[in-house]
Amino acid sequence: MSLPDPASVEAHIRAFETELAQTTSAREAQTVRDRYLGRKSSVVASWMQLIATAPADKKKNIGQFANELKQAIETRWKLYVEATAAARPAGAVDVTLPGRIPALGHRHPLTIVRDQIEEICTRMGFAVVEGPEVEDEWHCFDALNMPAEHPARDMQDTLYLATPIPGDSPGDKRTLLRTHTSSMQIRYMQTHQPPIRIIVPGRAYRRDDLDLTHSPAFGQFEGLAVGEGLSLADLKGTLLAFAQQMLSPATRVRFRPSFFPYTEPSAEIDLSCWQCNGAGCAMCKKTGWIEIGGCGMVHPAVFEAVGYDAERYTGFAWGIGIERVAILRYQVEDIRLFFENDLRFLEQFPY
């Protein structure tokens, strides 16, 4: 390649103007521009590469000519872009431009977790049922062996409503936003005979302040199985199978004695920490175990409320928070992130 000189600068400028005037689309114009100003294999780039091998007394001139050509073409390109933009009708579309890939939405992480919960449980033979979020005291408390003096019925925990549901429950009962999805277990057992296996995912409400780990509205899924000869071993085996499919095949389940009015015996559900495999880490607070919910064998008083023979049938039930599973699965430190609709957070969950 011959060394650049003023004549070659002018020749390239005229050639650029001629080629640019002959283009018929924005894509062709961009191709012409890149042929002269592109970072690789363009006229200006090739001149700049000559500096390394040119004689010492020519290096300065080559750089000067390359910069003159670059500035001249950039000026003409800017004028061309402005002129074509002014000449284009309002709203016109250049169909020769490559299409833009639209941004696709993402499922909410709580939706992802709920769908996975339902998929796992249906594979184990459980039906998915839903029920009303506005409940009455009988279905939410009385039928679940929680009498009027039970602490869970205190106004500090329950969001009561003024309008009753006529004829839907025995006696004159107040209405409320359900504090758990267990009320749907009562409704289902009233209309179905054993054996039954159901899970009840849905929203529940309590008078909690919104903070790192609590929300006045939260997702929950209850599980219920009723039949002949069911035992605590069946409950633990079911929860173990669920946890190993939801989290990790190495997950272990531990029961700790507890108390719930509608189960006897009752237990808290602990899972071995899948981050450290039980060795102890920050996630499990060095204990090796993570509490995830409550469970137990259905109390005979609950069977009596729905007309089941407590001498013939036994059953087990559990309740786990959907946000709790999502927090542990995705290692989210603040439950409020699930409700703030921050796209920077939600876009991390594309599946």
Q: Level of helix content?
A: 25-40%
Main beta-sheet annotation: 7 strands, mixed
Can you tell me the overall shape?
A: elongated
Poorly predicted residue ranges: none
Report the average pLDDT across residues: 86
Order of helices and strands: HHHHHEEHEEHEEHEEEHEHH
Strand % is 15-25%
Q: Given the structure, what is the number of helices?
A: 11
Tell me about this structure.
The mean pLDDT is 86. The chain is α+β, with helices and mostly antiparallel strands and 351 residues long. It has 11 helices and 10 strands.
Task: Using brief descriptors, characterize the structure shown.
7-stranded mixed sheet, 11 helices, single chain, elongated, alpha+beta, 19% strand, 10 strands
How is the secondary structure organized here?
Elements: H1 6-22, H2 26-37, H3 43-50, H4 56-87, H5 109-123, E1 127-128, E2 134-136, H6 137-140, E3 159-161, E4 175-177, H7 183-191, E5 196-205, E6 217-227, H8 232-246, E7 253-260, E8 263-272, E9 289-298, H9 300-306, E10 314-321, H10 322-330, H11 343-346
Parallel strand pairs: 1-5
Antiparallel strand pairs: 2-4, 3-4, 5-6, 6-10, 7-8, 8-9, 9-10
Helix pairs in contact: 1-2, 1-4, 3-4, 5-10
Summary, kept brief:
The protein is of the alpha+beta class and 351 residues long.
